[in-house]
Hints:
This protein is an alpha/beta fold. The chain has a domain at 42-265: Glucose-6-phosphate isomerase like protein, domain 1 (Rossmann fold, 3-Layer(aba) Sandwich), CATH 3.40.50.10490. The protein has eleven helices and five strands; from the N terminus they run H-H-E-H-E-H-E-H-E-H-E-H-H-H-H-H. A five-stranded parallel sheet has the order 2-1-3-4-5, with helices on both faces. Strand 4 (174-179), helix 6 and strand 5 (216-218) form a beta-alpha-beta unit. The model has no long low-confidence stretch (mean pLDDT 90).
Amino acid sequence: MTPEKPITERINPKTNNIDIASPLEIVSLLEDCDAEIFKGWGKYPDIYNERIQKNIDAVSEIVVSILKNSTRNSIILSGCGTSGRIAFSIARSFNDKLRKFGITPCFDYLLAGGDVALFTSQESGEDDPVNGRDQLIKATKGKKKVLFIGITCGLSAPFVAGQLDYCLQHLDKFIPVIIGFNPIQLARNLPVENWHKTFLQVLEDLISVEGLKKGFLINPIVGPEPITGSSRMKGGTATKLILESIFVSALSTLHVKGQNIIAQLVLNSYETVYQNVYKEKEQIAKVVKLAGKSLNSGGYIYYVGWDSLGIMGLIDASECQPTYGACSPR
Length: 330
C-alpha cells in the first residue's frame, strides 16, 4: 500500500494552471492559496484551532520566563533552508528588540549547512541528525534553561529530529517545540542513515510529554503550496507569523504595564495585513509582469533593501534558482 503523501508535498488544485495564467491571474491564485494559512485546509485544524492556540500561548509564557533571566537562559530557533533563514532573521530582529528594552540578548539560530546556507542552498546538511545535535549542544553550553524551537514545515528534517531527540533526553534543561504543517501521522517515517529513529518516532516522544507542558507541537494545516512542495511559500509565511506572534505577545506581557496582548490578537493583525496586501492585486501583477519580462530576456531581478527588509530579500532570492530556476541572488 502506497503511503499517504504529506499535505506539504501535494498538488494544490487551485493552482493547477498557474504556469499558463496571466500575471493578474497568478496573483489571484496566490491570494486564494494564502487564505488557507488563516482559514485552514479541509477537515484539519487551522491556525486558530484551540489546541494550537493553547500551545502558542503556553510557549509565549515560557518565553516570558526565559527572558526574566536572559543572561543564563537561551531561545534557540533551528531549521533547514528557508526555515533556518527565517530563524536567523527572527533571532536577529528580536535580539535588537531586547537591547532596546535593556535585556541581554538571548536568541540564537541554528541553520543546517552553517552560515553559508544563508546565501545558497545546502541540501546535504538537512540529512544529518548527529550534526544537528552537536550544533545544539555547542550553542547551549553553560545555559541553565533553553527553549528550543525546531522549524520543519514537512515534519521531516533529520537535522531538526536529532536536536529534538536530544532535548527530549534532557528535559531538565530543554523545553522543545516543533513547528510544522502536516498532521502527526504524515510526519516522515523513513529510516535516517546512521541514526536510530525516524522523525515520526521522535515526534511521538514529543507528543507524550505535551500534556505535561514539557514540550509542544504547533502544526496548523495550511494546505498544499501554490508551487508543489515549495514550503518556502505558505510554510515560510506561517512560520514567521507564528514565531512573531509568540515573541511579540511575550514582550508585551513583560514590558507593557497592565497589558497582555495574547498571541491570537497578533495573528489577527497578520490576517488583516494579508487582506490589505491583496487589495493591490493589479499593482502587484504589474511587478510580476515586469519580472517575467526581465528573466525571459536573460536579465536579472535585484533585491534592494536595508536591515531586516534587506534580509528578507536575501531569504527570498537565495532559493529562487534552486526552487524555481528563476535567478541567482545578487
